[in-house]
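Predict the holo structure. Ligand: iron/sulfur cluster.
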Amino acid sequence: MKCRVCREPAVIEVRRHNAGFCQGCFLTHCRNQVERVIKEHSMIAPGDRVLVAVSGGKDSLALWDILLRLGYSTDGLYIGLGIEGYSEGSGGYAKRFAAEKGAELLDVDLPRDYGYDVKTGAAADHRVPCSACGLSKRHIFDRAALDGGYDVVATGHNLDDEAAVLLGNVLHWDLAYMARQRPVLPGGDGFPRKVKPLVRLGERETAAYCVLSGIDYQVEECPMSVGNRQLGYKDALNAIEERSPGTKSAFYSGFLERGAELVAHADVDGRESLHPCSKCGAPTTSRETCAFCRLVERATSEQRRRITVGTP
Ligand code: SF4
Ligand code: ZN
């Protein structure tokens, strides 16, 4: 197979484009896709300071690399989740990447800075781990962005992630979630703007981007993801994609072009009823403390109890 652009031998085939690319043209293709998404959705304005959510995995490191190469002003933020056998490694990949690029990486550690880990937080708050993790990450990113004067938070959600979430939302006819499933969420009222510049790249492409540009990333998946519903939706979409290449992309981009408008009326973000959290000042619909402060309180007392009774 030859490269679609330069006709040299291809090193990767992207079936949904029915095309092969050589190393150089593939990397350029990925960067062009990201640049187009950023422009089309007005994600980042000239002069904006961008905070990149960096996990040490392929998506976030590919995103940070591309944004740096496109000339955006970016710093990274890594959150250590205290997940045994996983978090120790992921932080190392994030830190090595930042050091190689001479880029600034902010570092928050849940056990060190907040006194709990994801597993304890989930048990104490009667949530599944991914829910406690998501709540913690959202709060910490919002806080860091506002405290650090960043205009926008960029996350590494890729096409596979977004198509899987969309499928879940459609299967449950969750119109409110669908209405908020956009690649840009506007800022204001104590929230930074949030953008997903990788929505045109599949996870196979972000992995290939890292390998072909020499970026070392954490290959192991988070052990807490086992049984995660989204993985089932990804498998289902992959099975369809295998038979009909391009379906996943058509599903997601078709939603943005035609479906999103139909469900826009269901977007009730509740911002009109926000109050500052009595403890941390973050915007919340609760009259007292926000969900994150309540999670921290329960999780830290659970952590203390475990230490006292000697539970691992
Ligand atoms: Fe957090 Fe769940 Fe992702 Fe693990 S799989 S990093 S627990 S959201
Ligand atoms: Zn709070």
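Residues 43 and 195 are 6 Å apart (CA to CA). The mean pLDDT is 94.
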